[in-house]
Write a structure and sequence with these properties.
The protein is an alpha/beta fold. It contains 13 helices and 10 strands. The structure holds 2-phosphoglycolic acid (PGA). 2-phosphoglycolic acid (PGA) binds next to strand 10.
């Protein structure tokens, strides 16, 4: 990751895995630009230097907040990565309501969530569209955080592994190995999102191992070892530490518990 102006610390590589931990805040459709500024200021005030060294912290606000947060993060030399929750794959044109990867990259966005289960289920995004978005994010020199995960029905039908390997393999097919090493995948079982019932650490780790195995079988062991895999779904300050202790997992994608700066700071510090 590129150092910001000034002396802000860079996250250290996890010696157990050789990968840099990432904790990403997915605000979903919450917090207007004024609220966003307050939350980020408060979060920055709460966190210690050692928190920023422990992991990369990425904030994913609604599109309309991004410019305000870019100015705040730059002017106060905060060591947050700026993120987005979605994008469109075309560069420009008659796509009413959409935002291109070039537009996000111009705003200093580093990480873009792609294929979140709410995009898949509410907005009917399929694996083919998500693959185009992954490629577009890489083409604009940003990092996709590709979300994958099975629904409760798929899980009870014993289809979890099939779903994960299909979602991962379709999304990465068109990406070259050199670029793909930078990918982040968030394993988010749909039944765990916003439910208050997270996956067990074992299930989350098994899901991550399956995802890494899928990448290895399509690309290479080297690429599979480089990709960072997060867990997401009802993560709180009470369980974040357990997930971060798993050597299969490189971090967390946090929804509800990232909206309150006290909760989110506690979750990172745990
Ligand atoms: P949650 O959401 O932490 O509120 O379960 C996670 C997500 O949807 O990314």
């Amino acid at each position: 990751m590129v150092a910001r102006k000034g002396e802000a610390p860079l996250p250290k590589v996890n010696p157990r895995t050789g990968r840099t931990r990432l904790i990403a805040a997915n605000w979903k459709m919450n917090l207007n630009h004024l609220e966003a500024i307050q939350v980020v200021q408060k979060l920055h005030f709460k966190l210690r230097t050692s928190d920023y060294e422990y992991c990369e912290i990425s904030i994913h606000p609604p599109f309309v907040d991004i410019r305000s947060l870019q100015l705040l993060i730059d002017s106060d030399r905060m060591n947050f990565s700026l993120g987005a929750q979605n994008c469109y794959f075309e560069a420009k044109g008659a796509f009413t309501g959409e935002v291109s990867t070039q537009m996000l990259s111009k705003l200093g966005v580093r990480n873009v969530i792609v294929g979140h289960s709410e995009r898949r289920s509410i907005f009917q995004e399929d694996d083919g569209l998500i693959a185009k978005k992954v490629k577009a994010v890489f083409d604009s020199q940003m990092i996709p955080i590709l979300c994958v995960g099975e629904t409760a029905d798929e899980r009870s039908d014993g289809l979890s592994a099939d779903v994960l390997s299909r979602q991962v393999s379709t999304a990465i097919k068109a990406v070259t190995p050199e670029v793909l090493s930078n990918l982040v995948i968030a394993y988010e079982p749909v039944w765990a999102i916003g439910s208050g019932t997270p996956a067990s650490v074992k299930d989350a780790s098994d899901g991550a191992d399956l995802i890494r195995g899928t990448i290895e079988s399509i690309k290479s062991k080297e690429v599979a070892q480089a990709v960072r895999i997060l867990y997401g779904g009802s993560v709180t300050s009470a369980n974040s530490r357990d997930f971060l202790e798993s050597s299969s997992l490189d971090g967390l994608l946090v929804g509800g518990a990232s909206l309150d700066p006290d909760d989110f700071a506690a979750l990172i510090e745990a």
